[in-house]
Amino acid sequence: MAWSFVGLHVWLAWFAGAFVARAASSAPQIPSTANFIPGQGSFELLPDVQIIVDSAHALEGSPSALAFAQTFREDLLSVAHYAWVPPVTVLPVGVGIPGIPVIHITIDATLGHTLYNGQPTLEGYDFEVAPYTYSIKAAAPIGAWWGMVTLLQQVASSVASGAKSITIPAGVGTDSPGWEVRGFMLDAGRHWFDTGFLSELCIYASFFKLNEFHLHASDNLWNPDYLYNGGDAWKELYAAFRFQPPVGSPIAGLVPRLNESWPQTDFAAFQETCANHGVTVIPEIDTPGHSLAITQWKPELMLSGQPDLLNLSYPDTIPTIQSIWHEFLPWFSSPEVSIGADEYDAALGDAYVGFVNEMAAFVQAEAGKRIRIWGTDEPSNQTISTDVTIQHWDFPDADIPVRLLEAGYQVINSEQAFLYLDGKYSDGGVYPYSLNLDLMFAGAPDGGGWAPNIFSATDESNNTRADAPGLRGAIMALWNDWGNNATTMLEDYYQLAQSLAVVGEKTWAGSGVRETELTRAQFESVYPVMNAAAPGQNLNRAVQAEHGDVVYSYPAPWTTLFTPYASMGPPYTLKFSVKPSSVAPDTGFLFAGEDSKLYIANLTFEATGQLFPLGYVLPTDVYTSVEIHATTQYTYAVINGDEDNLRYWTTDMDIWAEYMERANMSFAAPAQQIGGNGFAGSIRDVLLTVG
């Protein structure tokens, strides 16, 4: 694998600190820091720590250094397990109270950090750790934020070590990302996700220094029997557009299921949450392919015989697409948006290229934003503007990254061989459940690990240098080809959790450039600590057991009872005995929580708006003993102690109308309410435990 250091001073710093950095990294971080030279002593974090932002530039930028510091303070409470620390203060540099630990945050525009390609970046930071003082300096607030994340991870490592106090080794370090774009994509067009969940994902990803959330917000299931049989079945195939037009909008008909769309206020709050954690949301409205949601609204726009493709020669097609963007561009705070533009009819290459260029000009004129497209093979006598970033994903297409870079394009690596996942099931086993660590840590032709400059594990000629001009970075993708019933929202998180961490390491540090990069063993050792410590969200739905492994125990009979716990993630065991009355309505539930409900009828779980019946009918007027066991991979019931007849909750996924695939479901425990919604009868001997 080819690479080069960027700048002699950076090389000297790496060389001077490389051997001591690894020696001092008994507690590695994700992503690894570029350079750290140990000093004498350590910084001890105490609950009375002062967090001081230099007054000279504290309020500049959006978010400002002060805003990031206030987010950091809240996160520090979580990671350090402190009940309280003093509020953030704004003071001149160097001010503090002797003998009390101080975290200094300073913005200094003269600091210069660079990406591997030599381009300046505002995301770098310097840090100095001394007894009583931890200083973070950066050229911009975003760099200071990543320095604060480094400190949070250091605190998490110290807490996990079991030491009596939280200490961080003294020394000086400097750190910056190798690439500008470090992100992940979630297919929200074929699976519904509310903005609360999306916000939690943003916060979690930020803890691993990912800075982009690519949100694929329109799409349809791909089912040839529905799409191409010549009939009207395509009108019934699931398709969705997630941005909710305001009442009275001329495009209101584009979103028939308002309960599966985001109002502007919700989406704005989601973007703000992401921004406050250093993450930019890149929205995608996919056209001219993957456009069934649009043609179900306006059938006259579809390409004959291919209802999921738009007819670009029809006079009203491009004006309609532009009217959609006109409605929603003011919503988006990002400097770029994606128009998708993949998998169109290759025979219509000229129309396709003309469409991409026209949309690039339109979005720039309308909102001052640039566009991205997925790489695709649309042979044409025309060329796509080099102002358009190409997101490579598939080699059979003509967008060979090396050629694109040579032609002056900017490229983002989303190569499916390394970076694609599919919600729970991958047709033919093409994609793994989570990113393959064998590939990520040894997937280059020379046996080195994957990085954004690696597009092929077998053909080195398809790979670039780490410092290649125009190589912007990488985005991993989680698709949801099988729709809403294939996974719950939390199951999508389970697939993403470790994958986001490894992409954070590889897009920040790369492979074969820095001596401080994590080995696979180091990554696997530290990841569970960082996953458990990640603040600002609770996607693991972790709860604190009251006694040992017991979360709660309610032995007395109940018809309705509220508990202190909204939801509990797996692994867990929920035991109870239930005696439904003969008049109990099917609408009654046994348990309900933030993420799921368990209805009495057929012991049906509800999650993410979908129903998953176990198919077991509870007898009335007699107690039945039920044990529910769950991991992130499955949920099953033991009825009346019959261990030889485990009953699993499953889902049936239609794989492109070719066959059905059955898969297990994992549900968070519906821990908040026992009995409700008209339940008649009694529930007793309720016991919820960890594991």
UniProtKB/TrEMBL annotation:
Keywords: Hydrolase, Signal. Transmembrane segments: none annotated. Its EC number is 3.2.1.52. It catalyses: Hydrolysis of terminal non-reducing N-acetyl-D-hexosamine residues in N-acetyl-beta-D-hexosaminides. Residues 1-23 form the signal peptide. It is an enzyme of class 3 (hydrolase). Residues 181-345, 354-509 form the Glycoside hydrolase family 20 catalytic domain. GO terms for molecular function: hydrolase activity. SUPFAM superfamilies: (Trans)glycosidases, beta-N-acetylhexosaminidase-like domain. Belongs to the glycosyl hydrolase 20 family. This is beta-N-acetylhexosaminidase.
